[in-house]
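Listing 4. Sequential folding, example run.
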Amino acid sequence: MAEPALPRGTFVLAVNPRAGRGRALAEAHRAADLLRTGGDDAVVLSAADLDTLVTMVRDRLRAAALSIRALVVVGGDGMVQAGLGVLVELAEQGVEIPLGVVPCGTGNDLARHLSVPLRDPVGAAGRILRRLDDPVPRRLDVGRVRFPDGRTRCFGTALCAGFDAVVNERANRWPRLTGPGTYLLAVLVEIVRLRTVAYRLEVEDAAGRCRPEDRAGVLLNVANTSSIGGGLPVVPGAREDDGLLELFTVAPLGRAKFLVLFPRLFSGRHVALPSVRIEQVRSVRVAAPGVTAYADGERLGPLPVRVDVLPAAVRILA
């Protein structure tokens, strides 16, 4: 009798067990079953808290880097952010491991941008398998946030540092709600506290020219991809592989005018409004009193921060 074939490699699936109202762990195992059909193994890693999970993933990838086919994150954009942080760290050490995404979170904005099937773990896993042998691998730029104390965080979608961050914080308090409806409801709750923020910016534009600038606004977003909040295309023309970020700001508006602008965000028609400004940048330092930055829906910390881009930092199986 012939011996069974040994696995060619291993997919490591990192799952946030609380994502998708508790569905994520079951969906991770469904995705793992499909990933094994090509002759590879698939290991599902989960933990009660994110720090423990990140440590488990990092140790597993380091210990068996040569046999890892991909890191597959199962969850929302916050889970993707954690995975990107590990992969960027390993890439800096000369170890490259591709990233796959099985979306199972609230926003899933990176998955939306990359056209990964939503609410379909088997379809998402099938996409990963088909992209393994692409002759021209797809690359993902990664945003990097640097704090004055030396801490850094990576992100895949966008950093928010205005009304959008306040809304994000409100939406995160409602874990039972998902998708753009959560974001819309949070907007309606927070609109009564809409305020203008006085930003101090240091911008390096796409041509490498640097300038300081004072800019007042109600929204500020440094975007790597097109949407936030579960599908709101704030920067509909953003590309994930152009080596640049998009600095998106909205000038001071009263509540009435803001409520006129907001519905246009759902279709991308806001970009034509005179209050909206979008420009490509290589990096930007953002400072403002009393403002907390968010990225990929996760709370990062108070401004100031410097945001730059790591071009083509991660291979993405999407």
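-- end of first protein; second protein begins --
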Amino acid sequence: MSNAQTIAELTTSNSIAVLGSLLPGEVPTPYASLMPYVLDESGAPLLLISGLAVHTQNIHAHKAVSLLVDGTGGYEDRLAGPRSTLVGQVEKVEKASFKDHYIARHPSAAMYYDFNDFELYRMTIERAHLVAGFGRVHWVEGDAVRAAIIDSLAA
């Protein structure tokens, strides 16, 4: 399995990740939060987030984010398991057309999906950092990751 395929497998088999964003300020400070996501047909993660959340305020100041997808569950030594950090930019998208798709993956979102303060953001994956276990660390370009995710979704 290629590195891009490993990242695609992690990304398609999970639906919760850790979102990294930057707190605005004179010196931007890293901020991490738990984030449900779904993937659209182009392999891009879609994030439904409230305008009241700290990470949303961060995104308004800095479009650059990361999304850590963890595949280490079930490993006795969690550091031996695979994980990948997707790196890219986010932009707001029209949320109405993704409602059924999002709620199918996250049914609890049905009660707040239509709230006015919730918006949907699409992440464009520019690169991904894969840690496939001890000493197996690779950067993979976004085009390869997106193509592998699309192939994985098609299967």
